[in-house]
Amino acid sequence: MPDLSPDLEMVRELRARRPEAVRHAAAARRRRPLLDGSGRLLLIAADHPARGALGVRDQPAAMADRVELLERLVLALSRPGVDGVLGTADVLEDLLLLGALEDKVVIGSMNRGGLAGASFELDDRFTGYDPATIAGHGLDGGKMLCRIDLADPGTVSTLEGCARAVTGLAGHRLMAMVEPFVSRRVDGQVRNDLSVEAVVTSVAIASALGATSAYSWLKLPVVPGMDEVMAATTLPTLLLGGDPDGDPEQTYGQWEKALALPGVRGLVAGRTMLYPQDGDVAAAVDVAAALVHGRAAA
Fold first, then answer.
1. What's the average model confidence in pLDDT over 192-213?
2. Distance CA 62, CA 60 (A)
3. Residue 121, exposed/middle/buried by CB under 10 A (0-12, 13-18, 19+)?
4. What is the pTM of this model?
5. What is the reported pLDDT for 2?
6. What confidence tens digit (pLDDT) does each residue in 266-298 have?
7. pLDDT tens digits for range 123-182
8. What is the largest distance, in Å, between two alpha-carbon atoms of the chain?
9. What value does the mean pLDDT of the chain take?
10. Residue 43: half-sphere exposure toward Cβ, Cα within 13 Å
11. Contact between 292 and 40 (Cβ < 8 Å)
12. Does pLDDT of 4 surpass 80?
């Protein structure tokens, strides 16, 4: 179990004096199978800051404090039933140097170029991990955001980039986690269409990306009518935890119902677990672990 009081001064010294420590730690990290005996996954998402999306509820800079974010991540990863983490290289390498990624599933976030609120937000360029580095660092896969707006020409480069990433990851026999949305601008702001019809359409488009779908997984929002959504694909699917603004009990109920559907393999949640309304990270993570893996996980 990682030290719950992260030695961040050690991380700063290693980054300044021994940058090769990242490569050495990646090579020495203990890995585990993508799926264990339960066949399910609970992953903590920590790639929001790379898009400039730092807000949680009424705190616009909640995720700006990297020390606090790392402390919350280390705590979350130490809890029973948490299988791993999804993040950008800067976050994952901090966790790697802290020893928090031993025996964990680690997914690298790939396209973070569509900065939140930017005029080019829907042109989701690949500015993060690439397939070669994901494989070289011993990660378990890569995640890509694939927002589809038929009125925005940036969508086509996003689709092309995602297709290349799916093909590249498959060439290394690694998971390609595609997170698709049908999106549009409303009063200048990008909004995701969470109707069943839109989510099903996004599933159809995302499932066909790349030269092979053998290693493709989907990361999908929980919406009313999830049975129709899951009927649209045979790909393994992880649920998107969503925004932490709603009533926690209602959110947990929606997760529980969706987790019972065929094809759903688990949950990826970030701010909902890392920044819960009552501030109790361990309790929020334990609830999610119990939903994903059963009460024995908590």
1. 98
2. 6
3. buried
4. 0.94
5. 45
6. 999 999 999 998 999 999 999 999 999 985 554
7. 999 999 999 999 999 999 999 999 999 999 989 999 999 999 999 999 999 999 999 999
8. 53
9. 94
10. 30
11. yes
12. no
Question: Which are the contacts of 209, defined by CB distance < 8 A and separation ≥ 6?
Answer: 146, 159, 162, 163, 166, 178, 216
The string of DSSP letters for the chain reads ---SS--HHHHHHHHHH-TTHHHHHHHH-----SS-TT--EEEEEE-SGGGT---BTTBTTTT--HHHHHHHHHHHHHSTT--EEEE-HHHHHHHHHTTTTTT-EEEEE----S-TT-TTTT-----S--HHHHHHTT--EEEEEEEE-TT-THHHHHHHHHHHHHHHHHHTT-EEEEEEEEEEEETTEEEE--SHHHHHHHHHHHHT-SS--TTEEEEEE--TTHHHHHTT--S-EEEE---TTS-HHHHHHHHHHHHTSTTEEEEEESHHHHS-TTS-HHHHHHHHHHHHH-GGG-
Query: For 97-106, what is the mean pLDDT?
Result: 97
Tokens 């719950």 found at: 4
Q: Which residues have CB under 8 Å from 295's CB, separation 6+?
A: none
- Residue 51: beta bridge partners? none
* Residue keyed to tokens 């702001």: 189
So what's the pLDDT on residue 1? 39
Residue 271 CA to residue 155 CA, distance in Å, equals 26
- Domains of the chain (ranges; CATH) run 8-297 (3.20.20.70)
CA distance readout (Å), 210 to 154, 159, 237: 18, 9, 17
